[in-house]
């Protein structure tokens, strides 16, 4: 959407309509659900009844009864990672070229646009790293259970929540009204604690 909005602004309303967005979401969910459906259907077809009565940690590893399932999931995750890196690099290189051409000789405007592109790129990098966290977590699950829980929570906060909160926080801090309200709230909070 950002690529279309910046590089093809005249076609933005046509390409980013509600209908085309819904189609894209359905396609993305369809592709991303295939590995889960394969793993779950294989598990339900071949798991013994005694396995259902055991207490296990809720992780995708417990559904993988065969070694090939682990390889398939790893290959699919790496494929997703590669496709997303290619799309992001292509989009952001084009966006940076258009932003630089649009700003012309105005260095301040150019730097402001570049900072925004870098911010969005950093957000997407954090989202991409989230695709690698299952590999780390599955390795830790074999060694130390408490470390697994701590790393899993940290991964969720760093790579699940942070990218979604980063833009609103930064754009909120740029807004003078919000910044002053936050500053007054923090000052009032410190004053109240000291009293």
Automatic annotation (TrEMBL):
The UniProt record lists the keyword Cell inner membrane: no
Subcellular localization: Membrane
Entries under InterPro entries matching the protein: GPCR1_Superfamily_Member (IPR052921), GPCR_Rhodpsn (IPR000276), GPCR_Rhodpsn_7TM (IPR017452)
Record field: transmembrane: 21-52, 72-93, 114-133, 153-173
GO CC list: membrane
Keyword hit for Cell division: no
One Pfam family per UniProt: 7tm_1
Residue span(s) of domain G-protein coupled receptors family 1 profile: 1-171
GO MF annotation, one: olfactory receptor activity
Keywords of this entry: Membrane, Receptor, Transmembrane, Transmembrane helix
Record PANTHER family: G_PROTEIN_RECEP_F1_2 DOMAIN-CONTAINING PROTEIN, GROWTH HORMONE SECRETAGOGUE RECEPTOR TYPE 1-LIKE-RELATED
Name assigned to this protein: Odorant receptor
Organism per entry: Larimichthys crocea
């Amino acid at each position: 959407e950002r690529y279309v909005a910046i590089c093809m602004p005249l076609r933005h309303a046509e390409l980013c309509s509600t209908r085309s967005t819904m189609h894209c979401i359905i396609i993305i969910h369809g592709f991303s659900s295939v590995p889960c459906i394969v793993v779950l259907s294989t598990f339900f077809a071949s798991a013994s009844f005694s396995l259902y009565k055991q207490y296990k940690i809720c992780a995708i590893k417990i559904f993988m009864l065969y070694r090939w399932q682990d390889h398939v999931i790893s290959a699919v995750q790496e494929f997703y990672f590669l496709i997303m890196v290619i799309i992001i690099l292509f989009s952001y290189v084009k966006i940076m070229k258009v932003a630089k051409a649009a700003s012309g000789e105005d260095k301040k405007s150019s730097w402001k646009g570049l900072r925004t592109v870098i911010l969005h790129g950093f957000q997407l990098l954090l989202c991409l790293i989230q695709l690698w966290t299952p590999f780390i977590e599955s390795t830790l699950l074999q060694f130390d259970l408490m470390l697994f829980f701590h790393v899993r929570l940290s991964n969720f906060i760093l790579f699940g929540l942070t990218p979604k909160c980063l833009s609103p926080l930064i754009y909120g801090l740029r807004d003078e009204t919000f910044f002053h309200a936050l500053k007054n709230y923090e000052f009032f909070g410190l004053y109240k604690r000291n009293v």
